Structure formats: structure tokens, C-alpha cells
Amino acid sequence: MKKTAHNAAAKAEEAARAQAQDMLHTMLQDLIQIDDRPEIWAAFPQFLQALPHFSSVIRDTHAAAMRSNPKIDLFLAIALEILVAMCEAHEGQLPAAVARLARAATMQSNSLLLQGALFHVQGLADPANPKYRLEERFCVKPFVELHVLDNSTHQCCANWLPTSAGDLSQSDWESVWNSQAAQAVRASIHDGSYRHCNKTACPEIQAGTLPTRQEAMVRWPSLAALIAERETEMQQGPQDVNLAYDVTCNLSCPSCRTSKQAADAATRERYSAMQERAILPMLRDAKSVFITGSGDPFASKNFRQLMERLTPEDYPDLRFRIMTNAMLFTPREWEKFPALHGRVQSLQISIDGASKQTHELLRRGARWEVMEENLRFSADLLAQGLVDSLYLSFTVQVDNFHEMGAAVDLAESLGVTGLYFGKMTNWGTFSPEEYAQKAVFTPTHPQYRAFLAAMADPRLRSRRAILGNLVDYLPQQAAAA
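Request: output the structure for the sequence above.
Response:
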């Protein structure tokens, strides 16, 4: 009798474990994808409760995979790492779960699945923080923005929203703007999943500044009905267009590229054709055009031609947002582009340092003396009302975090509108190991405590300092985490 009962229990145990293994197999098939899966993270406690062996099966599979196959498929490795962290998170080991995912996220900074899982677990560790509750928040960007890259388009920064809506070099802008992929992104905003977004990189998500749906209807009344009805097809074109298809630049900053890059004649001809066929017509109804986050507008022949074409006579409602490294932004160059005069909504200058040594190290090919002179010229344009706003941008990494406070001093001395700080992104320039060495803002970095000390600098509380996705590193937030 006892033997029969023992056999029955063993069979039941075996069946339960097989059920857990089947569920893991099914889940892994779903997780070997690019997008976040917030519905799985939210339901994970139910899986653990329904399948008592699920946690041990996950851990055993993870250990076996890492032990027997050091060259395991990257997507599978990420999925298993996430699942182990989810087990830890729901078994009373939240700090371990956050640390595990933070380490992995440093190695794969562009994985939406991994970053989304980290965001979810951080939310479990900080349940009172409203920024982790996206269900009733609204992001307007996919409904009004289009970023045009070489062979892809995005409804936000491609680092924060890597899903492409289509290729303007092959399709007309109307079909790209309302493509199936574009509408799927908008649907993810409506349903609150934000599954296509890099939640730990997006400055607005990290800063907790996304408005509620009700606030969004008041702020953007022309979109109120669309928000209320959760519509995804747009009846009007993009209002804000970001042109980032030409990577031509006069510098070769190591955070962006390994060598100086310039479009060749064939590429310039291809860009010119796209500008004539798609870009210029699309801009007729746009309100602003951003040129450019991909290189420097004054080093690019295509962008120079485009800025000359966008005259107030032909584009009376269009405003410019110009981003430059400022090496070529001289009074002489400014006079060559009368179409810009009085029409620059914002001028943004990337600095990445507040001293000659750091600036010239990180802006390879730049000269600090030229930068200082052109910064003063830019500040004069602002003071004279010839540009509406002037921003500096500072990409934080191990080689410059110690100058964040000094950068604020520089911004104050120039009287700029604001100074953007943000984490350095791996644009494919670095290996995962190299990026981990640069990413001083990760808790496992040997200089992380020094970075937190730099974040405690009172100068970063200046009204001009815009901390974006670094806001959680301010002293009170870091202490709470």
C-alpha cells in the first residue's frame, strides 16, 4: 500500500515537474523576441503559485545552459536571466533581482525585454513611486513625431523606441506614418504596456513626467478624441520631424563612432532623391524639423542644401531645431543660412566636458578654444532673440562624470536655457565589456560611489540642469533605491 502511494506521489511529482518544464518552454518561445512583455511580468506570481516546480525548473535550466553552452544564443540567455530574476523578486530577494538585471542590462543596453524586466522589478522594489505605473500615462511622441534614419523611421529616438515604422527611401511618407508597425506602437501607448519602449532609457519615463491621459487631453486638445477613443491611425502628418539619416560629421567622437564618417557621392544622391520625394513634401504640414542627432548639420552637404530649401516663403509655419557640435557654427556660417534667422526654435550644442582636456578627449577632432568662441557666439544669438532657446547636452560616462558640476557653471555663465544630462548609450561603438567599463552609472562599476558623489553636487539642482534618465541618482532617490 505504501509502495503504491509512493509511486503515485512520484508520478504526480514527475508530472508536475513536466508541466513546469512545458510552461518554461512555452514562455521561452514568447520571450525570444525584441519587445517587452509586461503582461508576463505582472502575471509571474500566478505562474509560481500554480506551478510549484516552476522556480526550480527555471534555475536548473539556467544553470545547465550557462554551464554546458558558453556560447548560448543571446536571446535565450537574456530570457533565462530575466526568469531567474523574476523568481528572486517574488521569493523575497528583490535586491538580488535588481542587481542581476542591472548587470545584464549593462551588457545589453538596447534589449527592450531586459530593460522592461528591470523596470518592472525596480517598480516592485519602489511600489510607492508613480513613475512605474504607466497604465494611465500618455506619451504624445508616437502621435506627432517621426525620426528619419537611413533605411528606417521611428516615432521617437531610435534608442528609446527601436521599432521601425518603415523606410522612407522606399515608401511614401503617408504609408510609413500610418504603417502597421507605427499603429502598433501607438496601441502600446493606449494600452499602457509601452512594450516597444526602452523604459530605463526614456528620460520622460525615468523622470516620471509623462502626463495622465486626462492631462494629455487638456494639453493637446486636437488629440483629445483620439486619446479617448484609443485611435491609432493619424489623420494628419507628423508635426515634429527629426532628420537623422546622414551621419556625416566633422568629428569622430568615441561615444558615437570609431572614425570620422562622411557620405560618399552615391549616398548623397540617394539622400537627395529621398529629400525631394518624401522629406520636403512631408515638412509642408510639419511645425518643426530637427537637424540632426546623427552627425553635424553644417558638415553635411545634404542637410546644408535642405536648410537652404526650407525658406519662410515656402514653409511659413516651420521652425528649426538645430543640434551641432559647434565647431563649424561660426558667424560666417550663420550668415550663409538666412532661412534659419528668426526661425530657430532651439539650438542644441553637445559638449560632453567642461575643460579642454575632457572635451578634446571625448569630442575627437575638436578644439576647446574654438568651442568657447562659438559658445559665446551662440549665447549672443540667444541674448539678441535670434534663436528662441539654447541648450547644451552632456552625455555622462566614466571619463566626464566628474565635470557635471563644472558644466552647470559653464551653462550659467553663458545664460543658456538649459543643460541636458543623460546616460551614454552604446550605439554599437563598444563591445558589451567596453560599454560596462564606460557605464559609471551602474551599481557594479568600480567608480559608482564617486559617480553618486558627483550627482550630489548642489550645482545639479540648478534650474538649468535637466537630468532626464539620471534623476534617480540624486541623493534622496539613490538612498531610497
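The radius of gyration is 25 Å.
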